[in-house]
TrEMBL record:
It is found in: Cytoplasm; Membrane. Belongs to the sorting nexin family. Keywords: Cytoplasm, Membrane, Protein transport, Transport. It is a peripheral membrane protein. GO terms for biological process: protein targeting to vacuole; retrograde transport, endosome to Golgi. It holds the Pfam family Snx8_BAR_dom. One of its GO terms (molecular function) is phosphatidylinositol-3-phosphate binding. This is Sorting nexin MVP1. It comes from Psilocybe cubensis. Required for vacuolar protein sorting. CDD domains: BAR_SNX8. Residues 1-23 are annotated as: Disordered. PROSITE patterns: PX.
Length: 670
């Protein structure tokens, strides 16, 4: 079924397009184009990573069982996981528990009881709250006690001050350092002129006949806007933003399915959709717009876990954001209904939906046809030659970026879990000395320095036997431990007011507070990298994959019968002339039939020649307006945002530690 490994190429025979195979056949969505072997939502099953030792989830399933969870549990969890991802950080759990007024030693014990990882699941979070309630009531703080109460359906309710729950530290709450000068590189001046220098003699068509006519829900034609970039000024700031969240599972056993909620910043109401409705929409779009650029959907998988569903949600979000901002597809009638109709399934049953190709209801006017460059095939050949290496490199970038982000949020695992086979073929660092081994070199040797630099700059460990650090989780645990130390040393052995002891305790309290703040800053940055930077990189990869698929569709679907029909017309014309010359009995009827056949073939030739022009116009539009703009402008936007956010993050970290330095300046030595 869906979990079966798919072959690397759908068609084994060589093709003229240089891509080997196509995902487009009778069912345009029959397989996924995202065949990097590493993406969590690839249709091919992923190898299981080496797990970090932890309490099995089944243990906590048995602890909570089917007990009714008090509402305060859900409110507390929602305050630290608003996106409902199913897990949160140890630091967030510690912040919630700190509102219970329990001693720091008790909080530290509870955190260590429920999880040894830098992240905690929803069930682990609920068990921690139950342990807090037990501690507040003076009962035994143990997992067994929680299990006993759960079996009686009497989970205790903790007393938490959620109103006072501190949120993630904002940049405004961190003291700023004095900076006298900011050095910035001079930005080059960019022109808005046509980068292709194509037919500058012909201005943009200002009429409404280009690509005109709305038939069966197809968008009404608009001028292509051939001046400049072909898009409005600063179009990247005006794009519609779609957000997709998982509402939950519905159905029973084999009929269970996931329901997604779609929200748009330009539409008033949200709609609920299941995955099969996404595939129906994409099937319609592929058939209507075979020569337009848009990404494929992430695939379906039976028995998908939470991680797979989350990655698929992100993939659906990227794909839907692409089509709603495509200059042509965004006007599609079925797409508009998909984003607004409360019950899409009911609408489908009551409506007749045309799957007619876009070229049947649109036309290219003479002026626009003349703007298509004569060397269009050469320009397309250049893109074809670049697309495969670009896909490969952007796949690497996405993998490395995701790996770095996971390490920054302390969710990384051992290097063998990160696809050791992939590391050998794609991620092997150059050896400085082929004959030497790292074990024979001193710590300061060049290769040792290479490995150290790789770990520092790239964010991953090249030694498969070394466990990566869990900085963020360790910082949260360090904060709890420091507070326990402060509690234990609350009373000096001297029995009187000891200034030395009190001063050191005050300094340790400041260290704990600033350590927690650093953990919060890191958590905020990790979340931002996951939700913005990484998604931007994957969107860039998706763009090139969509371009590859466009070329594949073009090679398969742009074929026509013009030459064959011309030969048939010639043959029929010769036969018609012979019948007219012979003028045998009933020759008039036979001549009329042949004449009708010739007229029909001539009309078909005219339609197919018109389709040829339309396909060329589409390919030119997608190359010049969609691909060229998106691959450059959106990447510029992502890089600038990343640089700004990293600079702000570095400033916040520096300000935090500078604030600690000032706070502990008065710590006594004697």
């Amino acid at each position: 079924m869906f979990n079966a490994p798919r072959p690397a190429q759908r068609y084994t025979g060589s093709t003229s397009n240089g891509f080997g195979g196509s995902f487009v056949d009778e069912n345009p969505l029959s397989s996924s184009v995202y065949d990097d072997g590493l993406d969590p939502w690839s249709a091919a099953p992923s190898p299981s990573p080496t797990p970090i030792p932890q309490a099995p989830s089944s243990v906590f399933n048995a602890v909570i069982a089917d007990a009714t969870v008090p509402s305060i549990y859900h409110r507390a969890y929602a305050s630290v996981d608003p996106a409902n991802t199913g897990e949160t950080s140890v630091n967030a759990l510690s912040r919630v528990l700190s509102t219970s007024s329990l001693p720091a030693s008790t909080i530290d014990r509870i955190v260590n009881l429920v999880s040894s990882r830098p992240r905690v699941s929803r069930l682990e979070f609920f068990v921690a709250l139950a342990l807090v309630a037990l501690a507040q009531s003076g009962k035994d703080v143990s997992i067994e006690q929680v299990a006993a109460l759960s079996s009686q359906n009497t989970l205790p309710e903790p007393t938490l001050d959620l109103q006072a729950l501190s949120t993630i530290t904002s940049p405004a709450s961190i003291p700023r350092r004095n900076t006298n000068q900011t050095i910035r590189a001079t930005l080059p001046a960019y022109s808005s002129d046509d980068p292709w220098n194509s037919n500058p003699r012909f201005p943009a068509n200002t009429g409404n006949t280009s690509f005109g006519g709305a038939i069966d829900g197809l968008p009404t034609g608009q001028p292509s806007g051939l001046a400049g970039t072909g898009l409005p000024s600063e179009w990247w700031r005006k794009e519609e933003n779609i957000k997709i969240t998982i509402l939950g599972q519905q159905g029973f056993i084999l009929n269970r399915y996931t329901v997604y909620e779609i929200q748009s910043d330009r539409r008033q109401t949200a709609v609920a959709r299941r995955y099969s409705e996404f595939t129906f929409l994409w099937d319609v779009l592929v058939r209507r717009y075979p020569f337009r650029l848009f990404p494929a959907l992430p695939p379906k998988r039976v028995g998908a876990d939470e991680q797979f569903l989350e990655q698929r949600r992100r993939g659906l979000t990227r794909a839907l954001n692409f089509v709603v901002n495509h200059p042509i597809i965004k006007e599609d009638g079925v797409l508009a209904v998909f984003l607004s109709e409360p019950s899409f399934e009911t609408w489908r049953k009551q409506s007749a939906i045309s799957l007619e190709e876009e070229s049947a209801s649109r036309r290219v006017d003479r002026i626009e046809e003349m703007t298509i460059p004569s060397d269009l095939e050469d320009k397309l050949a250049v893109v074809r030659g670049k697309i495969s290496p670009l896909i490969e490199q952007w796949q690497r970038i996405c993998i490395l970026a995701e790996r770095i982000i996971k390490r920054r949020e302390a969710a990384a695992v051992r290097t063998p879990a990160l696809r050791r086979a992939f590391i050998r073929t794609h991620l092997t660092l150059p050896e400085l000395s082929p004959s030497s081994t790292s074990s024979s070199l001193p710590p300061g040797s060049p290769r040792s320095m290479t490995a150290s630099l790789s770990q520092s700059f790239l964010g991953f460990n090249t030694n498969p036997n070394v466990l990566s650090s869990d900085n963020q989780g360790d910082l949260a645990r360090l904060t709890n431990t420091l507070r326990v130390v402060v509690e234990v040393n609350e009373t000096c052995w001297r029995g009187d007011d000891c200034e030395l002891s009190n001063g050191v305790r005050s300094g340790l309290s400041q260290l704990a507070a600033h350590t927690q703040r650093h953990s919060e800053i890191s958590e905020l940055r990790s979340r931002s990298l996951q939700d913005t930077t990484l998604e931007s990189l994957k969107a860039q990869r998706d763009l090139y994959l969509a371009t590859r698929d466009l070329f594949i569709r073009h090679d398969r679907l742009s074929l026509d019968q013009v030459e064959r029909l011309k030969k048939r017309i010639e043959t029929t014309s010769v036969k018609l002339d012979g019948i007219r010359a012979a003028q045998k009995e009933n020759w008039q009827e036979e001549a009329e039939k042949l004449t009708a056949m010739i007229e029909k073939d001539q009309a078909t030739i005219a339609a197919q020649l018109s389709r040829r022009v339309f396909i060329r116009a589409c390919m030119w539009h997608e190359l010049r307006v969609v691909l060229h703009n998106r691959e450059n402008a959106l990447l510029t936007q992502a890089v600038k945002e990343f640089a700004h956010e990293e600079h702000e993050y570095a400033e916040n970290v520096a300000n935090n530690w500078e604030s600690l330095s000032e706070a502990v300046e008065s710590m006594p030595f004697e």
